[in-house]
Amino acid sequence: MTLTEMLERSVRKYGKRYAILFKREKITYKELGERVDKLASGLMRKGARKGDRIGILLGNCPEFIISYFAILKMGGIVIPLNNFLKGEELRHTLNDAGVSTLITSKDFMETVGPLRPRLEELERIIISNKSRTKTLVRDKSSISGTVTPKRGVAPSGLYALEELVTPEVSATFPEAAETETAVIIYTSGTTGYPKGACLSHNNLISNTISSAEAAQLRSKDNFLLVLPMFHSFTTTVCILVPLYLGAKITIIESLRAFGEVIKEIMRKRPTIFVGIPTIYNILTQFSLPRILTFRPFRFLNPLRLAVSGAAALPVEVLKKFEKKFGIPLIEGYGLSEASPVVSLNPVKDIRKPGSVGLSLPGVGVDVVDDQGRSLKRGEVGELIVRGPNVMRGYYNLPQATEETLKRGWLYTGDLAKMDEEGYIYIVDRKKDMINVRGLNVYPREVEEVLYSHPAIAEVAVIGVEDKTKQEVPKAFLALKEGRELSKKEIIKYCQERLASYKVPHKIEFRKELPKTATGKILKRALKKSTTGSTEKN
Question: Which residue range forms the structural domain that includes residue 88?
């Protein structure tokens, strides 16, 4: 079935059940289905058509889920946009995907507005703002640039989301095949620019069903959604899985007020917690009400299972979390190109700390050498994956697709080994990708920004551990002769041009960077030693 059919099935079967809990708002499956249909109809009235790439730039809110399925309902392709991106980063993704419609909120218009003259395909912006949308849409002075009318679009191209969902459904929705692209997830690639992984309905449905089966999830569960919704891990595990099961989704707007997260757990009583290692590390150190950790009263804690993904989970964090909360924490592995879950530790069978578990039902994995030959158990090589969850390819990048998809296998670029029982252990990344709190940072992208500074002669960015044992970017710099630059100046320069998680706060100055005979900077040497360096503040 398609994702649209999956939701329709749940609406029919679980209509009166709550699907979404957000602050004081409660949305049943029936109400969710109605809102999806109305928005899909509204999008078509404003000129959106089957096959259009439609972007979603929103924070964690019900409108993200409604927009996601409305786009699919009217035959569009969903482009979930990283809401941490700055202007130029966002512009590249919007233009690369050819986004014609953008669904966003007033929170992001300061970023989107100035980009409009350089957004080649963007025809319309749908703005969600329950309290001020009409004012914002009327006030054209708040939006930079103009949009040339296309296909009968209003001159401003600005519409209020709430206005699109008020009329009755008046459209006949197009049919979609399960093999058609449903979502394009942008992930950093070997060029340093994000690449769009094209995922079909079948890719995502198969991964949804396999993930639910492997983690033994059920319709009575209540999923706590705290991670950013645009992330592929969040979308599959915290949105698609519960909607497939007929379960609840408790949405947390932000993790910044961590005390509020604990209160929401007590109020909404979620049973499944999905997070990344950084969150679990915080939880192990967070001071909880004593009654929640006192063993006889642990029944007050509704959580029955915690799932970790998007980055490697330290064994020490796993042990401390399970001891403190008394529930299992299972680690998995995945990548956007695999929809994204590849493996998961069993809930009731043997769980091996340090391992990312066994491959999902229906998903095949192997470890191969540089020639693509299978290695023996225990030997380290590149992890490759095949199955119905593997992407169709990269959007408009045939060469990159051929390099990643070979003979039916997805080459992950991750170094791994498997034991005799098939448990997978991720050893390292073959690529230079830096994983910052579950988000990918490609060094070249940061290096390009630093190279644009007039005082910098050479730069290399690598991933290093911070005090919490999490990976962060570190920049090695060689300045031009006679120039001076402080650490604070570099950080400010990057903050103006990069998403905050990409900014290197660890900076090391060197007279020159180590190189090969051909002049290529030796990053391996930088990782091994920092002798002879000086740090400036």
Answer: 29-176
